[in-house]
């Protein structure tokens, strides 16, 4: 397990450099924005807003998670950006992410959840984008089948779908 | 240490199994609880129920969005609001329809019905929402109406779902509670089991402590026993290495335990000269497991002390099997003292036996030696009786003769007892006739009985038995003693002798018939306290009894001995004043009547070469008549004598050519008569005497010859056999003067006193007689009488009977010198002649 992990760590480091150069870039088109990140992004430099469209999220990372969920029937393949890569790109190492859904459902996700092999910000279900009716466009998916730790009410409550906003709270 | 028993193993296994089951059960239940708790943790009820309640909220949002839609020219924003609210509600319903968490819920009829209505609404509305916005605006009021209609169904979905999950949650909690109770029960059981185990262990521990104490106490006892043991106790291992050496062993071997322990046993105790043997034994033992001493109980051997002295021991070796292997226990005792004591005892016993034998021999010799002069005395008394005596003198002679005979009988009895006690009493088994024997006894005793005015009779009772194989002399002796006593003690009464035969019963297995001879008298009887005593030696000598009865001395003691020697017994039934019954019981061997030998050489002449003068001495009238007739027909001149006394008298008076002498006779038997004739100075003192006897034994015949007889003929001697004998002894061939010296007393004397001592005595005797003879007949008659008397006694002791007789006659002549001086000279001459003959015979 040590080897793959180290590899992933190295990959994460490379991604960090690339994303930093991306941090200032915003989506060209307002309608394509699917996630708006607010809160202190850059070491207490004050309030800031970062908007992501699918391309930008996808550019950060693309992780595949195959799992069943209690909300769906059977096993499905989810593709998305791992939360670890996401917080790395935003240079966040502590605190929590307050995630909000389109229907204003909100839940706090500690940054410590963002680990390699942990949750992803899923944007594809079985290879297709998710519509609003299919709990899209973003759904925070934990690999429930891989670890019983991920099959608790707490984790279920953090598995927010129809996600469109994240506020970073340090 | 006890070996572990199978049932203990089973118990331990059972305990372990129970324990394992309890632990496993506990583990399983704990797993259950953990799973339940994990389930609880991973439970989705909250989020699921939240979603259910959210359905209604999302539905209300949709209703709000639709109801607030402006009817004219609504903005894109407003329409988006409706679309988004619909989509969210749609996604929520979709969740309930497809979410795995709600699968169980969908089986509920009320939920399912409400869901169907909601889904129908959604399916119907999707085209409107996805269609052109103008259509949506137009249909908004109708949509609102449908939404309001649907509201109870949505509420139903939410409520039934929530209710279901509440129940589910309840069940799960109960399940956990139940599991926890079970867990508590199992834990309690386990605790109980542990408690029992603890108790059991505690008990075992206590027992173990107690056992250890017991073992220690037992060991201490054994140690004390071993240390205080008077015997050496040595423990060794299989190789012979000494493990323990007690205090007695230290004392016995002169080695300290500290020195001995660890050494090899053979170094410590086995003597030098037995080392090789010991090694060989040990090798044999290793090879075969057999050992000369091991497990053989007490064995005698030798051991050596530290200083090398070898001493006798008694030892035993046992093997004990212990956890450390076999050990050997050697228990050993120094028996030097005992061996010495045994040796002393054996020596003392040998010495005592030798003394006893010497005493017996001396007694035998003395008895014999007393008897011989006594016979001389009696013979001379007989002669004296034949001389002219005054009435008072005759009375004195009779009294002397009575006393002399009694003395002779006592001496003979003592001799017999001595022989019996020395085991020399031999039985002479010959065919004998029971009836004739009893008749002889009756004949013998009837005279005395008559004198006492007593009637004596005998008869068979029941079946009779004639011929048996037995020692007639002994049986007759016993019966004669009993009958004689009865005759003596019965005055004016009756004596009945009854004989009968009974089948043998005693001892078991001896089926020989038993001859009973009961002698019943009407005499004075015997007191009870005397009854046992009269069978003892010399104890019959009660003074009053003796005086009245004439004394029998050893009689009954001897009779008892003879009866026992023949396998029989004498019993007595008596009471004072009631008379006595003596009963002799004897197992007997019946035999066929013996056939009579017929030694009749055909070539012998019917008439003798020359007629001879024959003295026929025979008590049995019939036998005497037959013999007389036989001899008379052959022209012999026969003079008859019916007993020894008569024979002696006749032989003294007349000279015969030959004397035929029956041995067994009443009053005086043939042997005695012979001795008297030979020892006397009668006319026929040196004529041949031929014994006629039923005693065929060589020993007896030798005794007859020693008495002075010249030949022995075994009865019945009939016809020509009788004539031949007479012819042989009268024709000169074979006839000879009797040996002047009886060799037997001298031989006995040499044996009893030793040859040197006897030679001394003989030398002195020779000097005495020489002096007596050389002094001549003119010496002082009193001195001659005394010296002759002394020398006669000595001559008798040496068996010089002829000399004894001559000296006896000389003494008598000396004493009568005043009356008859010539006779003294003649007697002196005779003594001189006899001395010269006897001297040669005695080897002087």
From TrEMBL, chain A:
<keyword id="KW-0732">Signal</keyword>
<dbReference type="InterPro" id="IPR036374">
    <property type="entry name" value="OxRdtase_Mopterin-bd_sf"/>
</dbReference>
<feature type="signal peptide">
    <location>
        <begin position="1"/>
        <end position="23"/>
    </location>
</feature>
<protein>
    <recommendedName>
        <fullName>Oxidoreductase molybdopterin-binding domain-containing protein</fullName>
    </recommendedName>
</protein>
UniProtKB/TrEMBL annotation, chain B:
<dbReference type="Pfam" id="PF01627">
    <property type="entry name" value="Hpt"/>
</dbReference>
<dbReference type="InterPro" id="IPR000014">
    <property type="entry name" value="PAS"/>
</dbReference>
<keyword id="KW-0472">Membrane</keyword>
<feature type="domain" description="Histidine kinase">
    <location>
        <begin position="365"/>
        <end position="590"/>
    </location>
</feature>
<dbReference type="InterPro" id="IPR003661">
    <property type="entry name" value="HisK_dim/P_dom"/>
</dbReference>
<dbReference type="GO" id="GO:0000155">
    <property type="term" value="F:phosphorelay sensor kinase activity"/>
</dbReference>
<dbReference type="InterPro" id="IPR004358">
    <property type="entry name" value="Sig_transdc_His_kin-like_C"/>
</dbReference>
<keyword id="KW-0597">Phosphoprotein</keyword>
<keyword id="KW-0812">Transmembrane</keyword>
<dbReference type="Pfam" id="PF00989">
    <property type="entry name" value="PAS"/>
</dbReference>
<keyword id="KW-0808">Transferase</keyword>
<dbReference type="Pfam" id="PF00072">
    <property type="entry name" value="Response_reg"/>
</dbReference>
<dbReference type="InterPro" id="IPR005467">
    <property type="entry name" value="His_kinase_dom"/>
</dbReference>
<dbReference type="InterPro" id="IPR003594">
    <property type="entry name" value="HATPase_dom"/>
</dbReference>
<keyword id="KW-0902">Two-component regulatory system</keyword>
<keyword id="KW-0418">Kinase</keyword>
<feature type="transmembrane region" description="Helical">
    <location>
        <begin position="180"/>
        <end position="203"/>
    </location>
</feature>
<dbReference type="GO" id="GO:0005524">
    <property type="term" value="F:ATP binding"/>
</dbReference>
<dbReference type="InterPro" id="IPR036890">
    <property type="entry name" value="HATPase_C_sf"/>
</dbReference>
<feature type="transmembrane region" description="Helical">
    <location>
        <begin position="12"/>
        <end position="34"/>
    </location>
</feature>
<dbReference type="InterPro" id="IPR036641">
    <property type="entry name" value="HPT_dom_sf"/>
</dbReference>
<dbReference type="InterPro" id="IPR036097">
    <property type="entry name" value="HisK_dim/P_sf"/>
</dbReference>
